[in-house]
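Hi, here's the filled form for the chain we discussed.

Project: internal
Contact: R.S.
Residues: 218
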Amino acid sequence: MSKLWTTEVAEATEHIYQQIIKLPFITQLADGTLDPDIFQRYIQQDTLYIHRYSRVLAHIASRLTEPALTEIFLKFAGDGVAVEKALHSHYLKGALPAMSPACVFYTSLLEAQANRPVEVEIAAVLPCFLIYLKVGLHIIDIQTNGDSNPYKEWIATYSDPAFAESCNVISDICNEMARTTTPEVKKAMTQIYIEACRQEWLFWKSAYENLNWPAELL
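And the returned structure, exactly as it came back:
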């Protein structure tokens, strides 16, 4: 029996995931020692990211011909906005800055898939589901200060069973699409999935190291 596509891409990106969970941003988030200013940089950029990410999800919904799938992706888009309002209202302070280079890079990559096969556009948004779930569950497994961790609401959001169920739903959709599409489109799905996983790594690294535009360019 052949492997599910999501199993194939998980294996292909395991080395990226291992580097993600070694990032100081993640290890310090897990033990609650992450500098609040660093987290604030991250949450500001994540707010900007989710706004555009939700629009990509809505665009996917507009391309799908099966009403049930359209409804699923519209719900995903709505859920993204709801998370932004709930989670970011808890942490976000002050006015939003300009998008960081990493945020521009990642969101532009997602938006660039708009005219490619819809299977590829869906594969591009999948890492934001699956990587966040894996990281959330990883933190739950290793943390020792859950109730006192200042980032417990963030951790709870991405380790929540409801979020896991959403991940299962979109994974099933991708697996079915990969099974029924052409080999060329399946290969493109894999390639964009891998690239988006790299963007997840870069997003957290960028926030931690403040990899931003120099002042003279702002």
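Let me know if anything looks off before we file it.
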